[in-house]
Amino acid sequence: MTKKKKKPYFPNNYDAVASCPSEWFIPIPFDDFMNWKIGGYELPSSINCIIREKRMDTGEVTEYVYQTARHGRRKAEQIMNEGVSELTICTEEEVHHLPPHYVPEYDDPLA
Is residue 87 one of the residues assigned to a domain? Predict the structure, then answer.
């Protein structure tokens, strides 16, 4: 029996931010904060995409974070081929919501 590989440490900046004094942070009204962080999200440069999977049969939500587009694409294809989950895919440019059994509309120029 082979041992499962431990996931590598994913670096973050929590210690650096937590150690900063509160005077370094500008106070901001709640509504402005919500518009900035929720309406205008930003992904760190080390992250290519975030995939959130909601299984329709169990209601379980799982989130995957990928540093490369290739790995994110593979995971999205795997989930879509199963056909039991709805996906939300977040990239730097946009957010996509794909229901189960999603077939993208394709306008064939040769047809």
Answer: yes
16 is a domain residue: no
**Total tally of structural domains belonging to the chain:** 1
pLDDT at position 17 over 60: yes
The reported pLDDT for the residue numbered 39 is 65
pLDDT in tens, 22-75: 899 888 898 888 777 766 777 888 999 999 999 988 989 999 999 999 999 999
In a domain, 13, yes or no: no
Is 70 a domain residue?
Answer: yes
Instruction: Flag whether the pTM goes above 0.70.
Output: no
Is the separation of the CB atoms in 53 and 87 below 8 Å? yes
Domain of residue 63: give its range.
43-102
